Amino acid sequence: MEIFRIMGGKPIRGTIRIGGAKNAILPLLAASLLTEEPVCLTGCAALSDVENMIRILGMLGAGAKMEDDVITVNPAQASRWEMPEHLSKLIRSSIFMLGPILGRFRKATVTYPGGCEIGLRPIDLHLKGLRALGVRIREAHGMIYCDGSHMHSGEIMLDFPSVGATENVMMAAVLIPGKTVILNAAREPEITDLQEFINSMGGCVSGAGTGMIVIDGVKKLRGTHYRVMPDRIVAGTLLTAAAMTGGDIAVRGARACDLDAVLDKLSAAGCEIIADDEGISLKGPEKLRPVDVSTQPYPGFPTDMQAQMLSMCCVAHGTSVIIENVFESRFAHAAQLIRMGADITVSHRAAIVRGGRLTGARVCAKDLRGGAALVLAGLAAEGATEIQGVSLIDRGYESLEKMLGGLGADITRI
Ligand code: UD1
User: Fold this and answer.
1) Matching CATH topology for 4-18+230-413 and 22-227?
2) Which one is catalytic: 40, 44, 116, 146?
3) Which end of the chain is more exposed for a tag (fewer CB within 10 A), N or C?
4) Which ligand 1 atom sits nearest the alpha carbon of residue 302?
5) In the predicted model, what is the mean pLDDT of residues 327-355?
6) Domain 4-18+230-413: what homologous superfamily?
7) How many whole angstroms separate alpha carbon 211 and alpha carbon 218?
8) What fold is seen in the domain 22-227?
9) Radius of gyration of the chain from Cα atoms?
10) Using omega within 30 degrees of 0 as the cis cutoff, is the peptide bond preceding 299 cis?
11) 196-236 pLDDT, tens digit each
12) Atom of ligand 1 at shortest range from CA of 123
């Protein structure tokens, strides 16, 4: 059980280059199953969720390996359509395998997925979308049995723009003849990355980034070399670290167009931000102003930056209100921040944060982004902070202690 030990009070300064986005790499790896030719993804970050996805592909017969920042998948020998239960419990993203397995084998058996404990996270929209494509689904004893022998194209209206459901239906529909339309589709940049990836394999998908995605089925996909999009949440986390410590940082590779809502709040808090083709630079103010944040599907403020922003509000001069609209129980970090001296009241989906000082304490990460928020709090706090549950943080940040250490933070993994 590793922990992070942080001595707070050091400004985050310097230049850093970020890696590929976890939330893009995972569906891209799943979509690799749709071809029988080799797929090469570059710019990948070494994250535990990615390692687990590589293991899942291996269990299905699609050899996958990572060397430096390159993942190579050889899906030719993939032969299993049953997802091993012990692995699918490890990451929620294993549910992404359902669409591509169905696309390739026209049948699939999966278990209910695992993942962060940030809400109920049902998969009804995934299943509704697949049913609209003619998949017959039987749920029994925690297993989901899918028969895709009568799959056909169709029109799917999502009740909520779910990222995972949009991606799953996109992947299931690519090899079905005819035109499939997803309405009220998620508009996240990772959806656009999946579209570009599928099209680089010879697929015909359009509309990603809007609420309507059109998939014109093709007979076959070829292999591809593809560079994964940069991780907007890692970029946002590092920028917030600089904001909270009165630092000065340049995040190379970060794309401002993916981060509009986050940069808007950092700027409202008093940060000076410059974005260009190279990346995003931020200079933190002497005194942070409070900000009100309400999470929404993209292009609204991302729920995956809510915890970090809440942490920042703990050291702002004034009162902030944070509302979480996407997941129903995503404030586990608040109780930990209170241990560090934060003044936070949580009621249902709202957190009221009266800014002040943070002091070092022993705290525990309860989920991935909440864990990152505790690291940021530790950087801004007076004295020493120890954070347990580092393995949750490793799911989405490649050696966060090395990234921050290189930027002047006093942080060690022990
Ligand atoms: C993805 C991201 C996650 C991010 C989230 C929202 C990946 C690997 N993960 O997760 O980091 O926090 O988008 O931006 O890309 N819902 C249902 N039924 C469903 C599916 C979802 O009710 O069938 C609900 C969820 O419980 C949640 C909301 O819809 O309240 C959003 O979920 P969704 O957009 O599907 O998130 P994920 O794809 O799981």
Assistant:
1) yes
2) 116
3) N
4) 14
5) 95
6) Enolpyruvate transferase domain (3.65.10.10)
7) 22
8) UDP-n-acetylglucosamine1-carboxyvinyl-transferase; Chain (3.65.10)
9) 21
10) yes
11) 999 999 999 999 999 999 999 999 999 999 999 999 999 99
12) 23
